[in-house]
Amino acid sequence: MQVTSSIREPLITGGKTVHDVSEDISRQVEGKPTQLWWIAMGVSLTLFAFGFYCLCTLLWEGVGVWGLNKTVGWAWDITNFVWWVGIGHAGTLISAILLLFRQKWRMSINRAAEAMTIFAVICAATFPFAHMGRLWLGFYWVFPLPNTWGSLWANFNSPLLWDVFAISTYFSVSLVFWYMGLIPDFAVIRDRAVRQGHQLRANIYNFLSFGWDGAAKTWSRYESVALILAGLSTPLVLSVHTIVSMDFATSVVPGWHATIFPPYFVAGAIFSGFAMVLTLLLITRKVFKLEDYITIYHVELMNIIIIVTGSIVGIAYITEFFIAWYGQVPAEQYAFYNRMQGPYWWAYWSMMTCNVISPQLFWFKKIRTNLVATFVLSIIVNIGMWFERFVIIVTSIHRDYVPSSWSMFHPTLYDAGEYIFTFGLFFTAFLLFAKFFPVINMAEVKSIIKSSSEQKH
Amino acid sequence: MESNKNFVVGIFEDEDVLLHAVEHTREKGLKIHEVYSPFPVHGLDEALGYKRSRLPIAAFLFGMTGTSLALLMQFWMLGYDWPMIIGGKNHASLPPFIPVTFEMTVLLAAFGMVGTFFIASDMKPYKWPRQFDLRSTDDKHVVAVDLAANKMSKEEISALLKSQGASEVNEKNF
Q1: Are the beta carbons of A298 and A11 closer than 8 angstroms?
Q2: Residues A156, B77: contact at Cβ < 8 Å?
Q3: What CATH code is assigned to A18-31+68-410?
Q4: A180 to chain B: which residues are within 8 Å by CB?
Q5: What residues does each domain of chain A span?
Q6: Which of A217, A269, A362, B151 could form a disulfide with A86, with the two C-beta atoms 3.0–4.6 Å apart?
Q7: What is the ipTM of this complex?
């Protein structure tokens, strides 16, 4: 007795039964990794190893190996940091905000998106730590720990310190949220392993599942935990990029000192986060044959979020310009004139093309339901979002108040190496996740099979 | 784990059939030990007569603890233990302390609530749950009835569960 809504498109296609969900999603955990997986892992580990060498050189030699100079003290490092944190916004947004709005289409994509969030935040965190140079002392500088200079505490008035708290809380709470979702699915794999006679696998997944039993009482508690975690994560996810934007907005640097930054950064974060979710999921659905779970309809809905947030970002760019002109502060006006027409004009116009113009193509249904177009545009959006952070950071500071110290930023191998390091880390972690953990939330998808699955013929 | 307990185990395929079955059998005086499902069935906790979880209260209390600790920490460190004037501002004023206070509130509320959930549900790694039917994490809903807690005989319970739509009825002893 399957019921299909006549006004909504089915979320799960192919006439799947509840048992099919367990089969389809557990298959890749139980089987041997494919050749493609090994190749991808080899590439990721190579990137990781090269990046790790660059990171070690940086720690040994000092931050001087980067291309930073006295004028441009923040460049690729902070650009990459903000870029990764932004990407890390989609996962918790999907699982928390869409849960509160009762959007059932989140169920097929939330697991992978949350995993992406966690790995992206880890990648982001490596940049401020590397930037400190003396990593081992960093903990005394950013956490309120008593130290050898007497109890000289961290400065709680500084947005950089708020950032430490925001990102470490965001990471921890997202990890808990993700893990809570995994617990019932680990139990599925455990019980399948018992039936298949794999005792070792059963023990490992039972350990991971904390001995989940699936009792009605446990589910009832579990549901209230999920709801409250969603309620807590919703303001949390909005606070994180708000605080990241305050790293800039609370300064008095022209181009940074803007009250529009918090909402503008949050919209940009969701924009880039969804783009990265699409990049990853389009590959994942193909490789693991999950076309019935992550349908064109899911892709279309994510593309609609990209149009909305991309348009907010576009309006924010225009507002910044308008206010710079209308505010009549010469330094502020020059900062924006310099962005458009200065030596970094190419970065500015790349940002405008990728972030403002390209997502508007999704107004066409043909484009937003086309997988190749979506894949290409999702990568273009993330290139654009990288340029956005580069434009904000470098063009605002490379020509400061004293023209004799005007300068350009010339990246070195180590600037690139750190970025490559995070790519290696990110894809290695994601591949491990995709192999050993169920990539789709089975329990949630099973709960909508009856209401939102395609009718069996 | 208690020993020598005999259970009648009814297997249900469909969550709506299960929900009606639980309501009807409980009206007929059957005491259900527990129901095990592969996914949350809405309304099942009410049908079984479970009270609403008090975990939200735990979350609130942990959150308030986080708020208080964060405010105390910041005011004590910057206002009392080592007051510093940074940028000509007050050493201790509330507005710049709000972000850290908010984050600590969320952190403690989330971790405290999840920890309470694990303790309340007696969940820990290395612990194997009592499993009535391994298919309960796949696609079957499993109703476990403790024989000792019921006046009805094994056969009566079996027949009752079958009449309410159970696809099979088994026995399980622990």
Answers
A1: yes
A2: yes
A3: 1.20.1630.10
A4: 114
A5: 18-31+68-410
A6: A269
A7: 0.92
Q: Can you give the pLDDT at residue A266?
A: 92
Q: How far apart are CA A412 and CA B156, in angstroms?
A: 80
Give the H/E segment covering residue B172: strand B168-173
A247-294 per-position pLDDT tens digit:
999 988 888 988 899 999 999 999 999 999 999 999 988 888 888 889
Is B129 part of the contact surface with chain A (CB cutoff 8 Å)? yes
Rg for chain A, CA atoms, rounded: 23
Residues 126-145 of A with CB under 8 A from B: 144
Q: For residue range A11-35, what is the model confidence (pLDDT) as tens digits?
A: 888 778 888 888 888 888 888 888 8
CB contact under 8 Å between A213 and B130, yes or no, is yes
Query: A409: Cβ–Cβ under 8 A, 6 or more apart, which residues?
Result: A67, A68, A69, A72, A75, A76, A394, A398
**Order of strands, sheet of B168-173, starting from the edge strand that comes earlier in the sequence:** B34-36, B141-146, B6-12, B168-173
**Is B10 strand, coil or helix?**
strand
Give the list of residues 6+ apart from residue A40 with CB closer than 8 angstroms, or none. A427, A431
| Residue numbers of A between 291 and 320 with CB closer than 8 Å to B | none
For residue A307 the two structure tokens come to: 């149009």
Structure tokens at B174: 């622990």
Query: Is the Cβ pair B114, A225 closer than 8 Å?
Result: yes
Which residue of A161, A225, A447 is in closest CB contact with B113?
Answer: A225
CB spacing of A224 vs B56 below 8 angstroms: yes
Q: Is B14 on the interface with A (CB under 8 A)?
A: yes
Phi and psi of B143, rounded to 5°? -105, 120
Q: CB–CB of B53 and A221 under 8 A?
A: yes
Q: Is A200 helix (H, G, I), strand (E, B) or coil?
A: helix
Pick from A207, A211, A215: which is nearest to B34 by CB? Answer: A215
Identity at A451, one-letter amino acid code = S
Which chain B residues are closer than 8 Å to A184 by Cβ? Answer: 38-39, 137
Q: What span, in angstroms and rounded, lies between the C-alpha atoms of B115 and A51?
A: 37
